[in-house]
Amino acid sequence: MLEYIKGFFELVKGLGITGKHLTKHAVTLQYPEEKDVMPERSRGVVVLLSDKEDGSLNCTSCLLCMKACPTAAIIIDAPRGEDKKKVLKKFELDFSLCCYCGLCEEACNFSALKLTGKYEYSTGNKDDLIWDVHKLQDVGRDVDYVDKRKKKVKKVAPKPTVSEATDEIKPTQSADKIETKPVEIKTDKIKTDKIETPQDKDEKPKTEGEA
Amino acid sequence: MSNLRTEEFDINMGPHHPSTHGVCRLLLTMDGEKVVKVVPYIGYLHRAIEKICENRTYAMCIPILDRFEYVTAMSCNYVFSLAAERLSGIEVPERAEYLRVIMLELNRIASHLIFFGTTAMDIGALTPFLYALREREYIMDLFEMTCGQRLTYNYIRVGGVSKDIPNEFTPKCRETVATISDKVEEYKRLLNGNPIWKMRTIGVGKLDADLALAYGVSGPILRASGVDYDLRRDDPYSIYDRFDYNIPIYQNGDVYDRYMIRLDEIQESCKIVAQALDQIEDGPIRAKVSPNFKPAAGETYTRIENSRGEMGVYLVSDGTKKPFRVKARGGSYPHLQLLPEIATNCMIADLVAIFASFDVILPEVDR
Ligand code: SF4
Ligand code: SF4
């Protein structure tokens, strides 16, 4: 008999613990209406990133991500064009194969690929899970990222556009060179009497005056 | 009435049965409600993980092995990384060791919480399941904030860990560990004295130490039968010797003890995580390891203490960038093997309780 009374009290104790939760708020979210905020490092849909200024793809077709992928979800076709540069012909990502491991993002040195917190891409058709380069880029347009590329690319870029009018540009180029030279001299050889005179005579008085 | 002839009949429990924790088919021969014979049929979740690993580089093996035992994927990451490190003699930075221990123990807590929830649900108490998963969610949040995934982490790598913890991790982790430690007390109040719970668990599915050892049982189930054996202490790895924690032991080896030992282990793991958070110092998190790294030729069997017993990897390297052989050993396989031994001649409801208390997870059995 005593056991039954004891047991009854134990049951009431358990119910009390459950009862306390009646007054508390729910810990769940009503999903389609309310959405959780995904953490920054969240590994969801893979996207291709575009340059923040001109909107072009960051990808240089180096194929590193394709080689790092354990499930062969990425297929890249990038034959070399006439100027020996790789041209990205095809970049496909098969989300039915992808296991969201993040190895491709780690392999990419050009901030061209990122796993994002996006996750709503379910579809009734399996073929829709193969995303081509345009879709990957479009989905990635609003993704914020830290650009870890070296900014070399920018300085090189104006050269080809200049090459057409060679005659006009040459003088300015030489002027550029001359401008930088005296500065070097200033710092290295301060108070040496013989300063190498730059070829251009316009610059000469400047250096002398300062020295 | 006593000479009334009864007829035995066969019944399939599973492969899709809520209490088989995955897809396991138990072929039961029943005499009324009494189980006369149990034959487990396995293989429904076979994904040839070991073979897949042979065709991948070491870095690629880790996300694949995540799926080997997806409830404690950190352990799978870790045991493989450890094996590769032992083969090639890579030194892991101090901070990485601490991060690994924190993640492993958090994962152990998460796994035991699942055990607590599902076992209680299988035996008939639904509420604990909801509570346990609520608490587990805090840990999932911590993992997600660190590595970006909730289940398949790909976090522990050969030579260290993939990312450092974010700033908000430490305070949140401390809070989580303290909350869970408190909640476990609440769970104990909720269930331990409950007469129905006690009737369903005490003295059910007794496993004595000799039988357990004969079957290669390991982990909490072995310790619930009174064998003091924990690989964290008995086959030391990582930096577990720097923490002060107990290894709970129970003597009876019944469902109740197997349940109690896991709740105690949650609290011990909470202690370890709290100490690790105190001791951790800044520093590098990963040794330099090339993505195509080639360990020296050789072989190793590396084992760690997982929440489901001994988890091991037998790794053979032939000096190339792909492993020659990866054999993964999970604790669940011997435990499932033990089921016919223990569950014969019990009631079908007890069979469910026993099976739940073994905490078998089928992907680990089938691989
Ligand atoms: S996340 Fe992993 S599986 Fe998916 S494309 Fe990248 S490397 Fe391949
Ligand atoms: S690694 Fe980056 S840059 Fe190279 S192909 Fe892949 S996405 Fe493009």
Structure description:
The complex is a heterodimer of chains A (211) and B (367). Chain A has a domain at 46-139: Alpha-Beta Plaits (2-Layer Sandwich). Chain A is built from 8 helices and 5 strands; from the N terminus they run αβαββαββααααα. Chain A has helices spanning 2-20, 64-68, 103-107, 133-139, 152-156, 158-162, 166-188, 204-210; strands at residues 46-48, 74-77, 90-94, 113-115, 130-131. In chain A, strands 2-3-5 form a 3-stranded antiparallel β-sheet. A two-stranded antiparallel sheet of chain A has the order 1-4. The termini of chain A are far apart. The termini of chain B are far apart. A 3-stranded antiparallel β-sheet of chain B has the order 1-2-3. Chain B has a 3-stranded antiparallel β-sheet with strand order 6-7-8. Chain B has helices spanning 49-54, 58-65, 73-88, 94-123, 127-147, 169-191, 195-201, 209-214, 220-224, 231-234, 255-279, 332-343, 348-358, 362-366; strands spanning 9-13, 25-31, 34-41, 156-157, 160-161, 298-306, 309-317, 325-329. Chain B has 367 residues and is α+β, with helices and mostly antiparallel strands. The chains are: A mainly alpha (211), B alpha+beta (367). The A-B interface holds A 3, 6-7, 10-11, 13-14, 17-18, 27, 39-43, 68-70, 99-103, 106-107, 115 and B 56, 59-64, 66, 127, 134, 137, 141, 144-149, 152, 154, 162-163, 166, 186, 189-191, 193-196, 291. Bound molecules: iron/sulfur cluster (SF4) (2 copies).
How are the elements arranged and paired?
The complex is a heterodimer of chains A (211) and B (367).
Chain A: H1 2-20, E1 46-48, H2 64-68, E2 74-77, E3 90-94, H3 103-107, E4 113-115, E5 130-131, H4 133-139, H5 152-156, H6 158-162, H7 166-188, H8 204-210
Antiparallel strand pairs in A: 1-4, 2-3, 3-5
Chain B: E1 9-13, E2 25-31, E3 34-41, H1 49-54, H2 58-65, H3 73-88, H4 94-123, H5 127-147, E4 156-157, E5 160-161, H6 169-191, H7 195-201, H8 209-214, H9 220-224, H10 231-234, H11 255-279, E6 298-306, E7 309-317, E8 325-329, H12 332-343, H13 348-358, H14 362-366
Antiparallel strand pairs in B: 1-2, 2-3, 4-5, 6-7, 7-8
Helix pairs in contact in B: 2-3, 3-4, 4-5, 4-11, 4-13, 5-6, 6-11, 11-13, 12-13
Bound molecules: iron/sulfur cluster (2 copies).
The site of one iron/sulfur cluster (SF4) has 13 residues of chain A, from helix 2.
